Adenylosuccinate lyase (Desulforhopalus singaporensis), 1924 residues
Amino acid sequence: MQRDIYQEPLVSRYTSKEMQNLFSEKTKFTTWRRCWVALAEAQHELGLTDIVTAEMLDEMRANVENIDYDIAAQKEKEIRHDVMAHVYEYGLKCPKAAGIIHLGATSQFVVCNTDLVVQKKAMLLIRNGLLQAIKNLSEFSRKTKDIATLGFTHYQPAQPTTVGKRNTLYLQDMVMDLAYIDNYLDQVKARGAKGTVGTQATFLELFKGDHEKVRKLDLLVAEKLGFSESFAVTGQTYTRKMDMKLGETLAGIGATAHKFAVDLRLLSNLKVQEEPFEKKQTGSSAMAYKRNPMRSERLTGLARKLMNLPQNFAGTYANQWFERTLDDSAIRRMDIPQCFLLTDAILKLFVNITSDMVVFPAQIKKYLLAELPFMATEKILMKAVEKGESRQEMHEVVKEHSLAAGKEVKENAKENDLLKRLAEDGRIPFSLEELNEMVSDYSAFTGRAEKQTEEFLDEVISPLLLANRNEMAEIDSSLSV
Amino acid sequence: MQRDIYQEPLVSRYTSKEMQNLFSEKTKFTTWRRCWVALAEAQHELGLTDIVTAEMLDEMRANVENIDYDIAAQKEKEIRHDVMAHVYEYGLKCPKAAGIIHLGATSQFVVCNTDLVVQKKAMLLIRNGLLQAIKNLSEFSRKTKDIATLGFTHYQPAQPTTVGKRNTLYLQDMVMDLAYIDNYLDQVKARGAKGTVGTQATFLELFKGDHEKVRKLDLLVAEKLGFSESFAVTGQTYTRKMDMKLGETLAGIGATAHKFAVDLRLLSNLKVQEEPFEKKQTGSSAMAYKRNPMRSERLTGLARKLMNLPQNFAGTYANQWFERTLDDSAIRRMDIPQCFLLTDAILKLFVNITSDMVVFPAQIKKYLLAELPFMATEKILMKAVEKGESRQEMHEVVKEHSLAAGKEVKENAKENDLLKRLAEDGRIPFSLEELNEMVSDYSAFTGRAEKQTEEFLDEVISPLLLANRNEMAEIDSSLSV
Amino acid sequence: MQRDIYQEPLVSRYTSKEMQNLFSEKTKFTTWRRCWVALAEAQHELGLTDIVTAEMLDEMRANVENIDYDIAAQKEKEIRHDVMAHVYEYGLKCPKAAGIIHLGATSQFVVCNTDLVVQKKAMLLIRNGLLQAIKNLSEFSRKTKDIATLGFTHYQPAQPTTVGKRNTLYLQDMVMDLAYIDNYLDQVKARGAKGTVGTQATFLELFKGDHEKVRKLDLLVAEKLGFSESFAVTGQTYTRKMDMKLGETLAGIGATAHKFAVDLRLLSNLKVQEEPFEKKQTGSSAMAYKRNPMRSERLTGLARKLMNLPQNFAGTYANQWFERTLDDSAIRRMDIPQCFLLTDAILKLFVNITSDMVVFPAQIKKYLLAELPFMATEKILMKAVEKGESRQEMHEVVKEHSLAAGKEVKENAKENDLLKRLAEDGRIPFSLEELNEMVSDYSAFTGRAEKQTEEFLDEVISPLLLANRNEMAEIDSSLSV
Amino acid sequence: MQRDIYQEPLVSRYTSKEMQNLFSEKTKFTTWRRCWVALAEAQHELGLTDIVTAEMLDEMRANVENIDYDIAAQKEKEIRHDVMAHVYEYGLKCPKAAGIIHLGATSQFVVCNTDLVVQKKAMLLIRNGLLQAIKNLSEFSRKTKDIATLGFTHYQPAQPTTVGKRNTLYLQDMVMDLAYIDNYLDQVKARGAKGTVGTQATFLELFKGDHEKVRKLDLLVAEKLGFSESFAVTGQTYTRKMDMKLGETLAGIGATAHKFAVDLRLLSNLKVQEEPFEKKQTGSSAMAYKRNPMRSERLTGLARKLMNLPQNFAGTYANQWFERTLDDSAIRRMDIPQCFLLTDAILKLFVNITSDMVVFPAQIKKYLLAELPFMATEKILMKAVEKGESRQEMHEVVKEHSLAAGKEVKENAKENDLLKRLAEDGRIPFSLEELNEMVSDYSAFTGRAEKQTEEFLDEVISPLLLANRNEMAEIDSSLSV
């Protein structure tokens, strides 16, 4: 590590080795070679066997990973052209093929196709991380499906729900994120073999005007690079709209994780739910006892940055002039890795946090009991109406006492005595005993929350995880906190 | 029009009546009533026939549009609750049903479901506008498929392409926008009947604990409102992630239109292509002759605003606490209409511009001829290599003369004499005659551009338009310029 | 109110009449006339007395507010040029001056100068609102300067501070916002009289090549419009960088208010501090007792939108080509009013909320007492070190018991028994009595918080309010909640 | 360079060593030590001479740069606390002072103060770069003050201006950027010595309740760190509003540079102005002759990213809860360096480009002559009105012929024959000779452009550069293109 220049914290602190590798020089330059191999193979298969011989192909395939970076770097310094420098270095390793490497292609042939190959791989990595988080959270949700807890609107106590039910809300959003990943994967294609401004002019010349062969070349290259199609048309590059969709897809994951993390930070203040806490973890120097929700906080900040990146891609796409302008280069070079690395870091945290969250039912119950009389007011209203009282009038009476009881809690830090107040009010047709009875089974206030949780997990999540079981790999969610 | 207070320009200047109506009070309040009708019908159908009678349903259905807004407004002022005020006013019109309107529901039952109904309708309106623009542009593209023109990279002349081919690039992006609209329409569902914090507690009570009936109620309401499903789970509102996806879907259209419009503004400077110009349209007071690309400029500005709105939805979604916080209210009230109105205005312009664009082939040809010698350098290189020359060496020679010829053009505003220079250089194995021959058929430099255009229009666009032919309605793209 | 088309909610719901008026057609068109009067007067004063006569000036001055909007609108429809239409209508009212209205000017003379006049006035309105909020909050801060309360880091209890001290943090940020307003007001200038592309060519001709007179004309016009200077140079319009600075200045206020509002929403959950609550205000239909922090939530949402607008201005400025492109028009037409109206709405809420906030000291104390043993750990550590114990060792012991006590609170919802645990541990050199003594005066834990508050209010805020006392006008902060 | 993990391109490609160093670990950790020295010195000076001895101070000062990073890193790994790890390592080097390093402070004492010290230094570096760009551009502007050129509105030819005058527009914006830098430097202060949540509790204890000494400590520390003040009040950290202002200040520079660069890219297409081009620079592999405006394009992309960063700071600031939440940490760790590095890269490019821009007067003249007849229409109108013709009628006639002449140019790629057309129209009271005469001196059409340029350079720029002459240092603007 160099201590006298800036180090990118995404790499030094937050992300997985897999993702860092995907955006490394090594991945880039070896993928360039795979593109050249794909092109040469396709040319050979389509009949250019005397120009591109089987021997050359063998040589090229054998040297995909055999790169002398220093030679390439020196050549680049000299001719100021990275692609040509690597054509040169590859040529040194493949003396027979040297003349046909990159035949008919321009720089963007390797640059765009490599970008797309790497992005697709990175998206699959993200997809896996998201599935892991879904799995963890669904297990948590099932485990807590029947724990009644305060539901909040305006961050004020509303009607009760269950812990598990609340977590299905995040899960449903994650499923939508997954749908958008899959939609993105449907849209992304290879750039194929398109030529300088996308007209395939050099390839048409190479194939002596045979349009069908050039179309096949385009498709063959795509297939060899792992795509079922190439973009039907391109300018010099693949459409930068694809990048915008990429950014939005990832930002969606960031937004879901952000909502989850903020809720957890609030729950942590309430002391009812916590992120996992490692034994050796220290709070601040002065406050030994604190269990700061640092992972959720970190996640929040990373997601804030991620959610703001699609804007850049939109700006770049919308301001590309004609077949291509180079104002896309520096910004994509930073933002495409950044948005994947941020998502990677976020999912690492998300998987880590959801792997072992702690719930404190006693605290939950304490809060619930303190608010239950307020929450029962709707039930009391309904029962009173059943008894023939006017809903409007009852509403007024209940409101009056609610506010008074609430005032007492706030102004004198007393316990909530709403039921007592109601029982003592002649207009209310219930005794304190009857009122206490009404609130005794507080899980009854949670309506279908538990059932909804079961249904959602059984009908949506389980089939999803089952369908993806072969594609899910454990990820390393250990953190340096 | 009130002249002493601010008027929203989106309404007064840029948008269609249809879209303005969709976000009006009238649409909102009548849709609320449709939600109440749907709920009552579903309750009736599921067996609550003695509480919700057929007679009540008739009454409710008959009064959906019969709203006395002043009474509702006055009631709202009094009780400070818009939904209850309209329950009251609806009750005045439906004396028999008065007691069962909104039965078991909370405000968000009408608010969320109405939002979703309106958004879906608005999205279909947008979808139609986009199809119109696709249709116009595909016709333009076909008409100009074989007009050779300068391709630009770095906004510097690169290899030639065709006008039609360039326009397939926009078309391909528009098809992707359409795919994202369709994906959004797949994701959007009704909120259904979910209750205060989404637990359906009041409905479960109403149906005496019969979970299946409550699930059916939820689905029935959704179907009656035009959806095939409702969200499996909700908090107090439907997930605000849906709004984020809404914003992104529309921003995608804005971005495509922006790229198109900027290109057209540049073409307009080159005097090779123009937006339609109305006879009576005046330039500025002092510059009578100017044909300013005002529609494209307006489109650019509107799209810039649109592309920035998804950020707001992301922020709102990611910062919703638990079952719902009200920081979503004011911002959604502005931004959801704004993003639809902006897209509506953009598509109106896009359809208008693409309906009658003018191309000036003589100008195009002039530019092409001035650059063709430069553009032919690749061809000359290839031919020289075929003759046994070293590509690297030829590259250097050609580069040297290219720069010199370019210098002459720039520094002395002379014609391009590159071919003459090359012919006179002994290292180049071609005569001036041969070189002139090489550039004579300039459409040959466009490679597969024409063919690609045909293929794309035949294989992608035509089937798309055919499949949607019944859903496309002419839109009014007249403008107040 | 039209019920069948969209109504801008900023106008119909949230903002002051003053701000709505500033962005009305009436203000725009009468200010145009003031610009024409200023120009004519300056031309007259600089010697063009036979072209621009005193009589004409009288006529023009007399008809500034005398506008027949229908005639102007009809003319605009005909000639499609709003400025010329108003020149025409003004001419109808001023038959003598008709020929010299707008003499030597182009449209942007009235458009830009009017924009700047209106923006400056609007900024002064905002400045006043901000001062009102500062005044309210400083009074609250002084009143609560000595109320000890939990300080939070990570939204976990940290060391105590005071309520007043916490509020000085918002105040300090508001003072910075004010400094940026004043900086903006220093930077904003008139556009003056600059001509089509800013070269003053027509004016130079008018003054027969007299450069000095043209410079004076420019300055005179600026002064007559209330500025001490005009921009030294312009293209067709004043620099759009100014709009970017405008947006940032206002967004700063939004951000400060947002932070304040979010804190208040959290305090409201804790039941320790609340926004004012009107007697008649109703919670939701089902939850009568709730005191939802609706104003703070509304403020949060409005601020979120405001904070995102500078981006638009930056994009417009950075993409203006040469002397001006029209992609600024539609977006500025929306965004400049929007950012002022949003800030106006935010300040109305901010002033309203801070005018009568409620604090519940009993609740505050309850929280404090529950956490104080934890908070005293630093003090206990220091005292133990004074007694010769190793800080590192004590830290470990205290940490162990802190975590255990915290666990008891969370897992069993018990009271905090940390001090008892410490007293019983032989390694800690203090009795329970001594430990209780250490936490007895909890205001001692607040350090200089009270003093800092006094100093800040006395040394920063009071002088500021004093210096601005003549410029502050009461604003109407009543809301429609 | 590690080839198997992602490398931040800002560092590896675009920025200055100075800026990279400022955000390095070395700068951070040595500045932490400077903070500790400042604190100890101040404590000593304020009377704690027996706790903090002169000998300790010597020891501490001697070891500021003497850091064993590996020991610190290992300790951090063990105790998971970076500040405490460095206190430990510093203590190893300073055995006498070991017990008083960091006395009474919390982590944010070193973290915040170091952040502010580094940011201030970085801002001064940026200020210098901006001044260099101003200097370069003002020289270019003076050199080209009288070169008449097409002014553009809507990117359509408008009235002529001069090259120099156009460049004063960028200069004026840069001067505004400088004013905002200076305003930022006025606002930024030290965090001083504030304690855990900003109450200075530990310091008050240390000084036995002496408030004045604690205030002095705060100020002394600030002064020793190079600030004239510390923030009057803080929470756990300095206000994150400061970061928002930081981001806006830098984004302003990005926006100015972006506008400049886009204009230059357009001029480059017109072949009238170019960025410097190095001899060895190659275009793309296939297009040897191209002089792509790659620096301006790169600048455009970098600026797009920079302009989007203030949003992040606004979001972080506005969502900080109470005295501090940690969601600021990861995002600031990335975005503060990023925004400085981006600005650094942009200014490097800006200085490089403006150091040696090329203008092609012959091309400029060609364009001007082609448009001049159109441009002269205003003059012709005025002359005709002087001769007694109706302006409205003449306007119509001129417009008619302008459009026809323009049509001829576009449709048949012919020369502009407007004057001939006018001369032949009996309604126009001028002969062709007279009309030619009117356009002969085309510099006459530039109004005060040259004069304005002189005035602006003499009255605004020269004094500014003079006032800053001692603070300007040459910067290395060499690029790796």
Summary: The two ends of chain B are 19 Å apart (CA to CA).
